[in-house]
């Protein structure tokens, strides 16, 4: 029987592990299907406080893990396949093995949706990004492309005009999912060029290990062409990793955990941390803060229950 099981090994999970371990709770961290979370797929992180020269994303998250291990946190490979939160202790099926825990911190994140092109995966962190706030500043005076037709795409395209010499927004159809106000703002921005009814068929250049261009296709005419690009930003949505909890933890229509204040969910003893609940900020530092909050709440909950 565990005091705390933490799901996810990104900034939120690892920070929760540091706090829970220092509180003597011996947390078990389930690493999940994306070890290290979103930070593990970025390169330079320049906005995490405390690193004036910046730090590599994978190093930052690995440091957090080591810090948690120093205080006794245990990490295991695997993902939660099934959960029974109907009574305490909670029961979790982790890759076929059931574990029991008095409290649970869900820090399983939200995975960026990708186009699924083979070269896209190879160039993540080398010109391909799913986070304009994180990586926009690397493309000063460069050519930027944003994919998507929702509010995120509009917001990111607008934001990226601060850096890029030009921003091309590529959307697969003519109608937008974005709200009118966000769309109008992007349309009024002279630095944003719209390419509609257009899809990306390939991204170059894997050999150079950096993005140099893309192959585009108009879905109506079938016309295909190549365009030079330096920074390629996906804004086609995120998928929160909450599947095993559907019907148990209250989720919003897109699957994000609905907070009941602080780090609390609707299930007493189950707490949330990071992107699995946050569709607004999604930053390493806010996830770390949320992990801290969840661990403090779990600790106080256990203390109140006499553990
Ligand atoms: P979204 O609204 O689901 O939009 C995703 C966009 O990506 C859609 O235009 C979709 O095209 C496109 N897309 C999805 N899969 C694709 C694929 N495989 N290939 C090409 N295009 C693809 O997601 P979001 O923009 O991230 O927004 C999520 C939620 O957060 C929304 O509720 C939004 O309002 C909110 N949000 C609000 C703000 C704000 O108000 N400041 C900012 C950001 C996000 P189709 O339209 O053709 O399906």
Description:
- The protein has 307 residues and is of the alpha/beta class.
- It is built from seven helices and 19 strands.
- The protein has helices at residues 11-22, 57-70, 118-122, 132-135, 151-160, 180-188, 284-304; strands at 2-7, 28-30, 44-45, 55-56, 74-76, 80-84, 90-94, 97-106, 110-112, 128-129, 143-147, 166-170, 192-195, 198-204, 213-218, 224-228, 231-234, 238-240, 270-272.
- A hairpin with a 5-residue loop joins strand 15 and strand 16.
- Helix 5 packs parallel to helix 6 (180-188).
- The longest helix is centred in the C-terminal third of the chain and has 21 residues, at 284-304.
- The structure holds NADP nicotinamide-adenine-dinucleotide phosphate.
- NADP nicotinamide-adenine-dinucleotide phosphate is lined by residues 113, 115, 147-153, 155, 172-173, 177, 235-237, 279.
